[in-house]
Amino acid sequence: MKGAKKAAAAKSSKNKRSVMPEKTAKTAAKVAAAKPAAAKVAPKTAAAPKPAAPKAAVPAAAPKVAAKPAAAPRVEEPKKVVTQRQGFKANEFVVYPAHGVGQILAIEEQEIAGAKLELFVINFMKDKMTLRVPTAKVANVGMRKLSEPALVKKALETLKGRARVKRTMWSRRAQEYEAKINSGDIVAIAEVVRDLYRSESQPEQSYSERQLYEAALDRLSREIAVVQHSTETEAIKEIEGQLAKSPRRGAKAESAEGDAEGDADGEDLDNDGDDTAVEDEAA
C-alpha cells in the first residue's frame, strides 16, 4: 500500500511539474501580446515646441497724402496754318524787283528736307522763265503788288523833268542806275529812263548806257501796260511822248546846264585827279 501511495505521489508531482511550465508559457505569451498593444495605446510624448522666429520690425506707415485728382487728358488742337502770303493771290500780276512784272500761276506746297514749304509759282512770260518764291520770303525779296494809277501818273510826270546827270565816273553812275532798276520802285526806274534818254539831236549812247536804258524802259513799260490794261507798244509810245516834253536843247547846252546844276545842288564830283566831265564815258 505504501508503495502504491508513493508511486501515486510521485506521479502527481511529475504531473504538476509538467503542467506548470505549460501555464508559465501561456502566461508569458499573454504578457508578450499585451505589451505591444500597450505600446500602441500609450500616448505619444508631446514634441518640444520650436522657438518662434523673431518677427521683423514693421516700418511705421507713411502719413497718407491726399491724392490729387487726375488731370483730364489734353486734347491737342490742330495747329492753325499761318499763311504769309501778304495778300497775294493766284493769277495776280506782281512786281519782282530783280525780274520785273510777272504773274502768279499758282500757290503750291513742296516738301524740302522733311519740311513743308509754301511757294508762289511766278511766270515771267517775256523772259520765258518760271520762278518759285517761298511765301515767307516775299517781304525780304521786295516783291510787291502793281503800282496804283496815281503812282503810275507820278512816274510819267517824272519823265518830263530835266535829266540829272552827276559828274562822276561812269562805273559809279552805272551802279546807281542798276540799283534803281532792281529796286522795283516805279518812280526810281522812271528817273533812270529820264537820265539815260537821248533824243535825235543828242550824241548816241555808249553800249553800256544803251543796255541800262533798255532795261529800265522795259521794266517801266511792262508795269504801265498791265496797270492801264494796254499793250507794251502803247506804253512805250506814251513814255516816249512824255520824254519828248522834257527840256532838252542840245548836248552842249545840256552839258553846261548839268554842270551848273550839279555844282548848285552839291552833287558828287569826281576829285580823283581827273577834273574833266565823263558823262559819256563807256564802261
The CATH class name of the domain at 149-265 reads Mainly Alpha
Query: What is the approximate shape?
Result: elongated
- Write down how many β-strands occur, each being a DSSP E stretch of 2 or more residues: 5
CATH architecture of the domain at 149-265: Up-down Bundle
Q: Please give the largest β-sheet.
A: 5 strands, antiparallel
Spell the H/E element sequence. HEEEEHEHHHHHH
CATH superfamily of the domain at 149-265: CarD-like, C-terminal domain
Helix content: 40-55%
Name the structural class: alpha+beta
Rounded mean pLDDT score? 73
Q: Using the coordinates shown, work out and report the CATH topology of the domain at 149-265.
A: Methane Monooxygenase Hydroxylase, Chain G, domain 1
Strand content: 5-15%
Poorly predicted runs are: 36-43, 77-82, 249-283
Radius of gyration from CA coordinates: 63 Å
Strand order of the largest sheet: 4-3-2-1-5
Distance between the termini: 195 Å
Number of DSSP helices?
A: 8
What's this, in brief?
With 283 residues, the chain is of the alpha+beta class. The chain contains eight helices and five strands, in the order H-E-E-E-E-H-E-H-H-H-H-H-H. A hairpin with a 4-residue loop joins strand 3 and strand 4.
Walk me through the structure.
The protein has 283 residues and is an alpha+beta fold. Among the domains are: 93-145, Beta Barrel (Thrombin, subunit H); 149-265, Methane Monooxygenase Hydroxylase, Chain G, domain 1. It is 45% helix and 12% strand. The chain is built from eight helices and five strands; from the N terminus they run αββββαβαααααα. It has helices spanning 2-41, 138-141, 149-159, 170-181, 186-196, 207-228, 232-244, 251-265, and strands at residues 93-96, 100-112, 115-124, 129-134, 144-145. It has a five-stranded antiparallel β-sheet with strand order 4-3-2-1-5. It is elongated and about 100 Å long. The protein starts with a helix and ends in an 18-residue tail after the last helix. Residues 36-43, 77-82 and 249-283 have low confidence and may be disordered.
